[in-house]
Amino acid sequence: MILPIVAYGAPVLRVVSKDITPDYPGLPKLIEDMWETMYASNGVGLAAPQINRDIRLFVIDSAQIFDNQDEDEKGKYPDEPGTKQVFINAHIKALNGKEWAYNEGCLSIPKIREDVTRHEEVTLEYVDEQFVAHTKTFNGITARVILHEYDHIEGKLFIDYLKPLKRKLLKGKLDDITKGKIKVDYKMSFPK
């Protein structure tokens, strides 16, 4: 089932999410719905807060970025061909490598894209959908997508990385999103 994506301004996007246990109600269906919602919205990642759940759960499919790359971009990133994965109860253990800028957008903040600087490598502890524990290091585009979604479960948004002047310039657009004065081709819910 395609779920509505919560728009900028919703309180759940600013909450630090809680760890969950294997008996979390309807978890397999929720994960299935998150994949369906992400793909229907043309996203490469989706975190539970974006569908109004304050739990430490996100899904990513960075392979889509590589599938849609121009020929001159091929082979540029170390994580090619990307990763499709579920992350539950993720916690960052280390950030390494150089910081680099990349143009990011967010399904909860439609029609705004900005360059964001992030580390090129992240080591995470998490469990998968079978609640098997992992500690794994990701790099390149995959690390960036993970860090973006990880921010959601920490109550952060990509616009938080922007300089104050840039945020001020975006205020009108952000207010329009909060008020539902935008059109998108996917299901959204706006703050009341």
UniProtKB/TrEMBL annotation:
InterPro entries, A to Z: Peptide_deformylase, Peptide_deformylase_sf
The note on cofactor binding and number reads: Binds 1 Fe(2+) ion.
At the top level, the lineage of the source is Bacteria
Active site residues of this protein: 149
State the CDD domains in the record.
Answer: Pep_deformylase
Q: Which cofactor does it need?
A: Fe(2+)
Which reaction is this enzyme known to catalyze? N-terminal N-formyl-L-methionyl-[peptide] + H2O = N-terminal L-methionyl-[peptide] + formate
Which Pfam families does the protein's record reference? Answer: Pep_deformylase
- The reply to whether Iron figures as a keyword in the UniProt entry is yes
Q: Which UniProt keywords apply?
A: Hydrolase, Iron, Metal-binding, Protein biosynthesis
Q: Per its database record, what is this protein's job? A: Removes the formyl group from the N-terminal Met of newly synthesized proteins. Requires at least a dipeptide for an efficient rate of reaction. N-terminal L-methionine is a prerequisite for activity but the enzyme has broad specificity at other positions.
Name-wise, this protein is Peptide deformylase
Lineage in the entry?
Answer: Bacteria, Pseudomonadati, Bacteroidota, Chitinophagia, Chitinophagales
